[in-house]
């Protein structure tokens, strides 16, 4: 907590606005360990995430995978003591990664072209840092670069990263731009880069990369507040023809596979340099358009103020009471729910589509970064509830993806106009269904067409066999059992959408498919278990092992609960309520032996609660399943354990990858007292609030006050729930009930019912 | 002539239209030896040049330059007996090269991914051919692929290459698409390629290459007349992430550095397959737009008919009488003047600019392939005279280049939205000046701004020193003397343009710079000679040596005549008319020893007439210089020698690279009896016609009949020239005189005056 205190106190010095909520945002939370968050500057849903990268571990060296790359999904680990530079694109909390585009690094003295190493930063342009001279807040980041004595400050708009470098007095300052740098890099990731010096203060260019995004186009337009004195570049890879005479110095066209450019300024006389970097996926003119539209004539401080104001506005959707620590955890989580998905279009609506062609977004904002295996659970339902405009635009973006897809499929895991096919299922259908059922403005007919097309793609991950056999056979894919469970849930959600849209035939067909989860259950065992095409179950089966047992990043003990669409049916399959409760108790109460997750990058001891894995998503709804039994108090009990253990307002505070806001959205819902166990229904299952008071400023203009007076670790149990004075007898609230606003009172108690 | 006869007779069988002029076009002329023309199909100024490539000699192997690449500038040598495939972009007659984009090759049986070798074509997809089963005509090419028994036919529109493959009965046919193939290739030239199978009959994609065009974007949209049965690809280079499951077969997204794709068809049942390939530089949607706009609903035969009609229309600008051989040489030359420059924009005007951004051409057609060191001499003046609309659009394209240039310069040698900086001088200014002086519709103010900006770029090839010293010093560049001569001429042309535009100050300044040619003359020697900055001349000077003597691709004996703007001044410098004539006589009359050009790729014994080098451009105006003396008959004498020797209607008929129509435009002018010795004046210097009759159908609707009754090798001398009955006393005609039309009569004689 020491460092956080420093950050907040420095923050106070620079924050130009009243920071009612943003004062509690600490972007450092999750930047050590497994959180994979980044500390840099961005605005809500902004396409630019300008942040320091502390290390660039190549994805592989001579073909050999480098395991430490996993740590650097966001480019930054707080435990590092050097900074390579500041790049403009970062995922928030993912477990696989990419990006780190367009790295800038200021320096003094002789220009260095290589980045150097953490051990020997003096061998390159990187610099040592001292975290006591580093601050981060919503929309702002600053650090002193010790090797140069430069103060580097960062802020951002939606499409522009803004740097302010204050060089030491009298020093010859420069800026290095490394277009070969990247997160999850490998030799050759940058396919091509071009740079044009358009005028003494304007530089444009782009790079195309083959990373996790198979083909990623990142264009930029950079405006320097001072004229460039001299510039040049090095290209560390062979180029057939670069064109020109003087070539590497003061030649305004640069091009190559590994371009590192440098620009010198008269900082000896004018020590402060502001650098505005417009980013676009459509072209350098798009980047320039974004730069001009969002920052023309504005100072760094003004842009910073606007970034803070943008966060204040978005964070103001929920006002809470609680301790500073509680507010910090809450508002930082809320902040993390609004980084990804991110805007992916120019100010005038031009964007690069999945077909890599340029398209114009008519009447919607195009978004990217859809980590759907994670975010369909709570992140998208949270946005549907509190940010419906963004949720609707995200759905429209997914429908455009479908239209532009050579596979005629909705996104699985997509970013920067690429499908990366990460994880399993086709959970965009859940996002669409949830929005349709909850009455958001969605083109239902188009959505249903896309959902049906996606869910009938026979080559996709065993789906053809699933449609024939009623389950995915293990010989088809190593994740057969979890695929079956996920497909069945997704199919049920398509049925729910079809029902809401009045399409009975589709509803009937997909509700039937929604029951296919039963086909991968071993009723003798009372748990899910992968099967072969001949119907036989996998032998040598270990229900605790998270690797190689037919479940993706998980074991049968957790994944067997993945039937949110039919909990009563699941209870029956498990052998009745008693056995169901026993299974849940066992999950939370017993330990997971280390051999069960030793080979699983996404699971560590840090994210375990008994055998329950909160650090990875498939289990997120499980604590709420007691609500279907007579022991709903156990939900209340375990939720608080989870929140206390995995959500600490500390730098190493997150118990797992934040996964584009999913972990945080889980926290927001749970801290408020309810959770969307089954997106595609209109129900939020009741838990127990973590904080004594919250006011939701609902998007329809109404407010909902949530009170849990006296709540504490001791008073964690819910004695009664009253909505506008009426006691709720069910274990859930509906979307409509929440939107009606008013007062939701949880009567807390130290003893469970 | 045997092969040509075959071609014509086959042609007659397939030509669907009356082919008044096109019957005399033989695209094979120049395809053996130094001509570097291609035999494939294109339309006038078309952006697609669909032609067979017979060999792909990599530009280098492990860093070592492969000299045979020079032979394959157009991808084809008639002496070869195998064909690799058919690619969509080719230069016409250049001496450096690039392109060969999007190669298709049909085949039967097992799909092969490598191209194989000329010695062992069976090891790859290439095929043996027999030139007796090969035909070429304007807008059409066909060949029998012996290894497969496939008849391949090609035709084209401006932006679409159209293939018709007739497979043998009962054979399983396929098409291979090699996106790694290219002309002047090297390992890694293709930076990235993507392919999408959009439907069973539509495939889109692109490749980006780093060739002579530093960054070249070629998009395509391919429509097959039959549905694809099965498809796949191989990528011979590592790719980090391709995305997807089945990967290499029937997966509709392909991507990589060395993609070779294949598509199978049911040719056993339907042996004929038509493949339409739309090409664009803006995107796959641009390529599809072009494909649809130019070929939708049209059969191969219909498109072929339209291509022939387009050529008929353009070739009809000049009607001649003469022998079949004379007509063949004339119309084939005329054909070669209208291949490059080529259209470089989509049907709706969208094009990729020099800044690699997309632009919309408003009110003009955007062109590319400006081989200006060659074409400013006769090709552009020819277009200004006979194709002014195209000439004006080319000038507008050059002005857009200037606007988009990071260097703020007009093109030097540009293609596919790239400046390749080839050769010396800044001859686009000559093209602009010539058009301005001749009254074409040009934005004069913009043009002058661009000309002045280009000619004052200090870093460019010694130009800064030239502006200071009055000549380019040899320590600055190895081509100092020819640079000085070329800069001086170019500067004079800027002066002429300024004068025509009424800008006296600029005219005065540039006329002065136009006299700088004198500063690189050694008056004691009477020839041009390079100097150092201190004023001293180069020692160890050999006036015949074409390498290393301060002249680009030439020697002092030829280059000293490069003063078209001031022939009287040159005569003085050389020591008076007698010495001037002696120098000319010496040039034509004496031999050039082999050691003088042994190291010069662009000069061979085939292109020499004594010491006069017709195969390369700097000498093209020299035969006309006798016109300034009392011995103008020597012009008449030598012109016929040159035409007889270097322009034969044979496959190995051209005495040097056609250089984007420059050699051919020289021939057209000279065969008509006049030549633009000094573009930027309105004068055409009189020579002697090669043919007895020509009628120019002038762009203003008037006609000019040119008669040279009885002209022959014997009657090669001009006794008198009468324009509309009035004897011409000068040795030139003006542009205005030509445009007034009427009759131009050359009275021929076997004896000179």
Write a brief structural summary.
With 753 residues, chain A is an alpha+beta fold.
Explain what this protein looks like in three dimensions.
The structure is a homodimer of 753-residue chains. In chain A, helix 4 (324-336) crosses helix 17, helix 7 (388-404) crosses helix 8 and helix 14 packs across helix 15 (577-589). In chain A, the strands form twelve sheets. Chain A has a nine-stranded antiparallel beta sheet with strand order 8-9-10-11-19-15-14-13-17. A six-stranded mixed beta sheet of chain A has the order 20-34-35-39-36-37. In chain A, strands 6-12-18-16 form a four-stranded antiparallel beta sheet, with no helix packed on it. Helices cover 26% and strands 22% of the residues of chain A. The first copy, chain A, has 753 residues and is an alpha+beta fold. Chains A and B meet through strand 13 and strand 27 of A and strand 13 and strand 27 of B.
**pLDDT average of chain A, as an integer?**
95
| Beta content of chain A | 15-25%
Number of helices of chain A: 18
Global structural class of chain A: alpha+beta
Helix content of chain A: 25-40%
Largest sheet of chain A: 9 strands, antiparallel
Are there runs of chain A of 5+ residues with pLDDT below 50, and where? Answer: 1-17
